[in-house]
Amino acid sequence: MASHSKSNVCKLFVLDTNVLLHDPTCLFRFEEHDVFIPIITLEELDTHKKGMSEVARNARQASRFLDEIVSSSTDDIEDGISLKAPSRDAASGKLRLQTQALHAVLPSSLPIGKADNQILGIVMALKQADASRPAILVSKDINMRIKARALGLDAEDYFNDKVLEDTDLLYGGTREIDGDFWERNGRDLKSWQEGGRTYYQFKGPDAPKLLLNQLLWQEGEQPLQARVLRLDGKEAVLETLKDYSHQKNNVWGIVARNREQNFALNLLMNPDIDFVTLLGQAGTGKTLLTLAAGLALTLEQKLYSEIIMTRVTVPVGEDIGFLPGTEEEKMLPWMGALEDNLDVLNKSEEDGGDWGRAATRDLIRSRIKVKSLNFMRGRTFLNKYLIIDEAQNLTPKQMKTLITRAGPGTKVVCLGNISQIDTPYLTEGSSGISYVVDRFKGWEHSGHITLQRGERSRLADHAAEVL
């Protein structure tokens, strides 16, 4: 066991079925430790493999991985099969399948027939068989972990797919410039104006800590709102933002009501930024700002040919079922949010009277398409403004499927509220939106902003605080 010199003992991880259903690649994620798969886990994988759901896909993938590992190996199954080759050197432990009946005495109150309890019995038997080596149950099921601990067994959650342990560490997209910022970094400060914007170029110790398209702000006598335009080692260039809180710069009749909304509109209206993520609680204006910018860019500036809006139909993505009608009509019940926002956006055209408003509404409708997520695979969107609403309910894999649909000239906007996740097994840390925010930060064509302040009404604000 030369390779284990760094850790005193190689652990044995017993996998519960839900871990494999959650992430089939978990087999290769335990580094130098061994992975043990009980027969009952294989039995349960088999019951989950039918259907088109994400869980069924993962069950089939897990079975494929196991088949590859077992069939390609010359090792004896009794001693464990090395995971080094199948994992392409990511894991150096062994895969062990349960080859014989393992008996452990569980308290009589735990019915033996239940799969969970059989797995607990196996963990206990492994622990009794070799006391020198820790046997640890890995499960996504909280009750299962509590039961294990009650029986004196070690149990852990499976964390590998989590981007962040704590969502407070999630990149917020903004940074306040403190009072001494310019003294520290103002050595070779240059500033110039071009096309109505002011640019600042500086060198200093803070530059390496910045990220491209991060939004900086400073309050005080000379307030500043700027975006990090270029970074090169210790040198950075900032570009001042357009002030969308002023009525003269309104976007489809909408003005920014606070600093973060102004930041968001600057990202949404910038054609160089292909990917924007907006996070925020209910009522912070994510959908409204995104739609207003979309309409302005599609109908006024003609940068995009149409707006496509998709959201997870929360009985998540199974199918949109036997509602009558076309894909558009089937999606209507999920699109209440879109309707509400269009009413606000349409209100601003008062001079045209009712006829004018109806005409505008029809024009807008003709340019906004509503699509179901289930039909996104294999499509390519050219010159579209793609809005992914309720993105916190997507897994990282579904997120990848969607974002990779974007063809040339397409802008993708993801909206989400990570405190409202409805998908089973997804948490704030493993949600697709946390994943893309974390992976895309600092890319020159993407921007992110977390909206803080609700702008619905004093009632909604107060309810959010006290309830």
Structure at a glance:
The protein has 14 helices and 18 strands. It is an alpha/beta fold.
Instruction: Return the domain count.
Output: 3
Give the mean pLDDT.
83
> Largest beta sheet: what is the strand line-up?
3-4-2-1-5-6
Global Rg: 27 Å
Sheet/helix structural class: alpha/beta
Supply the number of helical segments: 14
Describe this structure in words.
The N and C termini lie far apart (56 Å). The protein has three domains: 2-156, Rossmann fold, CATH 3.40.50.1010; 167-240, Elongation Factor Tu (Ef-tu), domain 3 (Beta Barrel), CATH 2.40.30; 260-466, Rossmann fold (3-Layer(aba) Sandwich). Helix content is 31%, strand content 19%. The strands form three sheets. It has a six-stranded mixed beta sheet. The protein contains 14 helices and 18 strands. Helix 8 packs across helix 10 (336-347). It is α/β, with parallel strands linked by helices and 467 residues long. The longest helix has 19 residues, at 54-72.
